[in-house]
Specification:
Elements (H helix, E strand, L loop, with lengths): L7 E5 L6 H13 L5 E5 L5 H11 L6 H25 L3 E5 L2 H8 L6 H10 L7 E6 L2 H11 L11 H13 L5 E5 L4 H16 L3
Parallel strand pairs: 1-3, 1-4, 2-3, 4-5
Helix pairs in contact: 1-8, 2-3, 4-5, 4-7
Bound molecules: thymidine-5'-diphosphate.
């Protein structure tokens, strides 16, 4: 982050990890303090994102190469249309998933997660200032997924053995801006941990 600019923050984690809940709370917290915030998600609401969501919810299986292609097209659109304009307007950016999802998820389907990270970095997408990995065991995640979806229908990735691989991929990532958060703790405690980190690092309080 360059001097005077607002942070670009990403929440990552397996399905059922609670990342959307915490991303929403963090968004509301800073917005209510008068800070301009752009809150986004991938898959995005754009045309590629909508196509991806329809595919993931359908019973049709989609090959991993095609998944990679679609998620990258969606990210290109999202960066150009939403993320870069928000950063240029000096907004704080809060994303629910970004390129680490690509590496963790498509990397669970016989692709090398590190190669997927390199492909994304090679595209010149802006680097987040902080990535919070909401880490949770897959049993708890699967319980949460079925609690919010009692019909028993699951999306492509919401199966325990796949989630195990995705979680292992996430835990293999590291870097100065990549933080692992224990997402089995109560929501207020998780929120406080993340908020305190953002305040300390980016708002000097
Ligand atoms: P998710 O955020 O879980 O959507 P929702 O909570 O609204 O259903 O994202 C949908 C799925 O997309 C999720 O299973 C993860 C997957 N995904 C990838 O496989 N690769 C990616 O690059 C991204 C951004 C998401």
């Amino acid at each position: 982050m360059t001097e005077g600019n607002r942070p670009f923050i990403v929440f990552e984690g397996i399905d059922g990890s609670g990342k959307s809940t915490i991303a929403e709370m963090i968004y509301r917290h800073y917005e209510s303090r008068g800070i301009p915030v752009y809150r986004g998600a991938e898959p995005s609401g754009g045309k590629w994102g909508r196509e991806i969501r329809a595919l993931l919810a359908s019973r049709n299986s989609v090959g991993v190469k095609e998944q990679l292609r679609l998620f990258l097209l969606d990210r290109e659109d999202d960066v150009r249309n939403n993320i870069l304009p928000a950063l240029r307007d000096n907004k704080m950016v809060i994303m629910d998933r970004y390129y680490h999802s690509n590496a963790a998820y498509q990397g669970a389907l016989d692709q090398d997660p590190r190669v997927i990270i390199d492909i994304n970095r090679g595209k010149g997408f802006p680097e987040p200032d902080r990535v919070y990995l909401m880490d949770i065991d897959t049993d708890t995640a699967v319980q949460r997924i079925s609690a919010r979806n009692p019909s028993g229908e699951t999306d492509f990735f919401e199966k325990k053995n796949l989630l195990e691989k995705i979680r292992a991929n996430y835990l293999s990532f590291s870097g100065p801006n990549f933080l692992i958060i224990d997402s089995t703790l109560p929501v207020p405690a998780v929120f406080k941990t993340v908020k305190n980190d953002i305040d300390t690092v980016f708002f000097g309080s």
